[in-house]
Amino acid sequence: MFKKILLSPWTALFTLALVLLVRVTDPTFVESVRLRYFDTLISSRAPTENTIVTVDIDEASLSKYGQWPFPRGTYAHIIEDLYARKAGLVVLNSVFAESDRFHQDSELAQMMKHYPVVIANVPGDKTKNNPRNPGSAVLGPEFLDQIITYPGMIANVPVIENAAAGIGTINTLPEVDGVNRRIPLIVTVGDKLYPNLALETLRVAAGDSTFQVKLFEGGVEKMRIPKFGPIATDSLSRIWIDWSLVPDRYSLTDLPKDFDGEIVIVGVSAQGISNPIATARGEMLPQDLQASILGTVIANKDRPVITRPDWADGAEIIALLVVGILLIFLSRWTYVGIFSSLFITGACIPLSSFLYRTDAWLIDCTTLVGGLILVSLHTYGVEFVSEFLQKQAIKKQFAGYC
């Protein structure tokens, strides 16, 4: 009786239960595989031209302008030159937290009062200088602790901080594998809410004095820039970055004559002083990452937003349970079961890809496919052993008869 039970295809239920347990507990390696699969889905979109331009301070720029960091007066001349080339808005992906060694802070500040410029600040362990109070309207401020919080904010020197048209946070939020895929558009320090550099750039470009956020006990419920419209995020204000949006890149020493009113983000790319960021596309320069974030927010206004539905985890677990039991049941008809296993596991990836192309839903099929393969191998492995033992028994009986 024990042998009969052990060789029953229904023992594959134990394998199915084990797979379900792994999926429910969702260990790091399972989540990493799922995120890598999402990278494949998002990267499957054909590259499209971003509406943002990045300007690199590269090795040629250092040869032209001299030692890094540049005097603040040099930044002033760069801003003036970019606007002379019809830039729509200039963004400096830089933090000026210390006074200029050449005493040219006022020169940069005067230029920033003449031309609108967005600059950056950085979350830190403690606050430095005096971060400017961001222009935001928050509904439900008692729930500020439900979003990403930092202990401090490193701001620019006061003369520059107060002259900027906008100040946004340059922050990252790596996933469990250390790769940045989702970036929060707002963070908090104390009782104040600060926008990401891309969100602040969009606010300044739209000509709004504030952005609006509605919070609830689960985090962010709604977010909008009045003259731009709603911005879809998750409860932590994160958006999935669309890597198919590729910005135009120029060297600071080789600029076009006409930017045609586009937003221009200036950052460092020279080796030794740049700080690449790990992303789904590999190492990426900070200004290119900000261009992708900003381009994604703009593009999301007219197309389905890349999202991981709230019901996705539950649906994937239920699908694994139901389909697993179905395949075990169908194994009593060997060829029907094998065909069904091949068809269902083979259809999972095309179905997931179709849902992404049509609705931009990130639905995982890696655990489902892997789990069903393990269940099928167990089911038909047991049947093979059972059939083999039966043949051996018949052979032994026939030999005894002879």
Please, could you describe this protein's structure?
The chain has 402 residues and is an alpha/beta fold. It has helices at 2-6, 12-25, 28-43, 59-65, 72-84, 105-114, 158-161, 197-206, 286-299, 312-330, 334-359, 366-401, and strands at residues 48-57, 89-92, 117-124, 136-139, 149-150, 152-154, 166-169, 182-184, 186-189, 192-195, 211-216, 219-225, 229-230, 238-240, 245-251, 263-268, 277-279, 282-284. Strands 1, 2, 3, 6, 7, 15 and 16 form a seven-stranded mixed beta sheet that branches. Strands 4-11-12-13 form a four-stranded mixed beta sheet, covered by helices on one side. It has a three-stranded mixed beta sheet with strand order 5-9-10. A hairpin with a 2-residue loop joins strand 11 and strand 12 (219-225). Helix 10 (312-330) packs antiparallel against helix 11 (334-359).
